[in-house]
Amino acid sequence: MTAVTDLLAGWMPGQRWFGGKGRDWAEVSDEGFFLDQSDPVLSVHRVQITYTDGATETYLVPLSWRESPAEELAGAFIGAVTGSNGTENYAYDAMRDREATVPWLTHLVAASTVGPMRFHPAGVAHIPEGLPGDIISTEQSNTSLVYGESAILKLFRRLEPGLNPDVEIHDALRRAENPHIAGLLGHIEIDGAPGEEPATVAMLQTFVPNASDGWRLATSSVRDLYAEADLHADEVGGDFAGESERLGEATASVHADLARVLPTEPADRDWYRTLAEQMTQRLDAALAVVPDLAEHADALRTLYTAVAGTEEPVTRQRVHGDLHLGQVLRTTSGWIVLDFEGEPARPLAARRELDTPLRDVAGMLRSFDYAARHMLVEQPDDPQRAYRAQEWAERNRAAFCAGYSAAGGVPLAADSALLRAFEADKAVYECVYEARNRPHWLMIPLSSLSRLTSGD
């Protein structure tokens, strides 16, 4: 193991974007090249980790190098490496070193090829060359830089062969002139092993300033409702139903354009059976983690069995794959949908498969439930709050569905076994997540499963 590999192996497990936390490593290697050799020097490393179970993952890590310590970058310091001439070289997380963020856009404007990395400008709008980027500290699986108020670069940390669906779908919706996305300005890819497709490294989009994310707006509405003990959800000044309806319309617009410009196909019986089997397998795995799911297990299996035999017609198409209130922004002109890469933990090939728009609808309906009930965690035994949370959730779920249907989305039947099953499957996933990360939040998906399995 080289000195740089050794540094990265010690630093990566502590990063939010690293997905292998808690897994035992068998081997690690890195392959790097220089993207810019000015001051600071910028190198890019592909770090391949082999775990003891035989699985491998490859991560992208840009480093900036300085000849002396930079006190202002103490929080980004990774370590020092002694060069062949005996001098110390100081390595920093290049995404947190503003001076080292300039070359990404310089190369994108020039459509450069640097070593195995190729830069592809979309050629549709101005790219702010020469500006440094400021990191967004709240992200988890990826890392993003904002350049001024005009562009945002998302670096995909975990590399897989193939075009990332975030790039592919944004490009398709740009061609369709859909108004509910932030425009794609370009993307970057890196060559893989012989015979492999290039992996997507990053994408550049138009930055949307002065926008509010859907989760923040929705939860603010819930707080307003809780503060007005004598008013119903439709009487509170912060009523969110109008926004929920417009969000439903925006979601339907995105789905319609994806079906128009990307492939579609009718679902066959094998698809329904496979879907039901996958849901059942996820339930079985979740039961081992969340014993409280046991009381719902039989009803969930019955619900999933109904999916295998349903006659609901489905036209499979490209979808968002991980839609919730945190993935949408409200601007002065309407809703913008973000992050079309799907669930980052799933293999890229699976995220690019055709699916039903009902999966996205179910994800958003689950998000309304979370927004309504998140404050119940503080007062779980308050029946008045529980009633108001249910009232808010029902009102906004109904408004979203009404907007979606009115804008020409796939029909949303009230008795849809598919939609109910997708919601339940998502709630089972949430139970596992909460049990592992926020046990005091487990009550939220469990209460939803009570509703979903009772047929209410």
TrEMBL record:
This protein's pathway: Glycan biosynthesis; glycogen biosynthesis
Subunit structure comment from the entry: Monomer.
Keyword Lipid biosynthesis tagged: no
GO biological process: glycogen biosynthetic process
Enzymatic reactions: D-maltose + ATP = alpha-maltose 1-phosphate + ADP + H(+)
Upper taxonomic lineage: Bacteria, Bacillati, Actinomycetota, Actinomycetes, Geodermatophilales
Protein name per its UniProtKB record: Maltokinase
Family, as annotated: Belongs to the aminoglycoside phosphotransferase family.
Single GO molecular function: ATP binding
EC numbers on record: 2.7.1.175
Keywords: ATP-binding, Carbohydrate metabolism, Glycogen biosynthesis, Glycogen metabolism, Kinase, Nucleotide-binding, Transferase
Alphabetical list of InterPro entries matching this protein: Kinase-like_dom_sf, Mak_N_cap
Organism: Modestobacter roseus
Domain of life assignment: Bacteria
Segments forming domain Maltokinase N-terminal cap: 11-97
